[in-house]
């Protein structure tokens, strides 16, 4: 279950220690400082819209393509087997689960704040902010 945090944390051995507070803090810092935007699958279409606005040279027309082709659903799970309440309770009680959930919630809040800034500008067809992160060339 120690999946998202090590990925965003980096290559340090501490990143791979399940339950490491340092790894969680580093992952949060890296998400904000090293990635232009990180989306969540629950808001996949909005993520593509944000990318289309921030990186039009790469994603121009992507949102329309997803809608036209019906491929906007590709990141949704079609079938989930239900786990027992006892298993769910046991998993949710672990430090690793709680840290992963904290990181996920952090990523969602960060994405929503970017989305809240970007999408209204896309509708207005103008850029009225300076994004502090470096765009790829």
Structural class: mainly alpha
% residues in beta strands: under 5%
Q: How many strands? A: 0
Distance between the termini: 35 Å
Which helices and strands, and how do they pair?
Layout lengths: L3 H6 L11 H14 L9 H11 L1 H4 L2 H8 L15 H8 L2 H30 L13
Helix pairs in contact: 2-7, 3-7
Keywords:
7 helices, 59% helix, mainly alpha, globular, 137 residues
Give a verbal description of the structure.
It is a single chain. The chain is mainly α and 137 residues long. 59% of the residues lie in helices and 0% in strands. It has helices at 4-9, 21-34, 44-54, 56-59, 62-69, 85-92, 95-124. Helix 2 packs parallel to helix 7 (95-124) and helix 3 crosses helix 7. The two termini are 35 Å apart.
Summarize the structure.
The chain is mainly alpha-helical. Helix content is 59%, strand content 0%.
